[in-house]
Amino acid sequence: MMYHALMQAAERVRRKAYCEYSHFAVGAALLAENGTIYTGCNVENASYSLGCCAERVAFFKAVSDGQRNFQAIAICGAPEGEEPSKPCPPCGACRQVMAQFCGDDFEVVLSDRIHLLGALLPTRFKLE
Ligand code: THU
Q1: Which candidate, 42, 64, 63, 40, places its Cα nearest to that of 52?
Q2: Domains of the chain, CATH where assigned
Q3: CA-CA 20 to 30 A from 38: which of 8, 12, 72, 81?
């Protein structure tokens, strides 16, 4: 099942998280419309605010590879060294980045269930 495979990819890349400061490791796996999966982990920095979330790493990898259309993203997160046991909802900034490329029906796969972007971010900023 695709959602299961997507979450497995998120769990696998989560092991690569560079989270020296928060010790909270996140993994994300983004499914492009053509079936390609792009993964990302959080990458932190000594200058704290320069760190980037796993979801945005996955999106920026995909867009820089020429992708513009996406079906779903699976996300998992937990303290480093622990297995994820609770859903890890995406932060507000990442929701806005998702909304740049995805519609309300974009699927956000968390460990509890599938959430729709339209429900997670009912009103998004638009430059108009
Ligand atoms: N983090 C993510 O990677 N994704 C989220 O949706 C929320 C938070 C990261 C950022 C930081 O490296 C660590 O988790 C703790 O906030």
Answers
A1: 42
A2: 3-120 (3.40.140.10)
A3: 81
Check residue 87 and report its DSSP letter.
-
> Distance, CA 35 to ligand 1 centroid (Å)?
26
Say whether 121 sits in a helix, a strand or coil: coil
What local confidence, expressed as pLDDT, does residue 54 receive? 99
Residue 52, helix vs strand vs coil:
strand
Prediction pTM value: 0.97
Residue among 91, 94, 110, 117 whose CB has most ligand 1 atoms within 8 A, to mutate: 91
DSSP for 11-43, written as a single string: HHHHTT-B-TTT-EEEEEEEEETTS-EEEEE-B
Q: Whose CA is nearest to atom 2 of ligand 1?
A: 53
Helices (H), ranges, the chain? 2-14, 54-64, 92-101, 117-120
**Per-residue pLDDT tens digits for 9-64:** 999 999 999 999 999 999 999 999 999 999 999 999 999 999 999 999 999 999 99
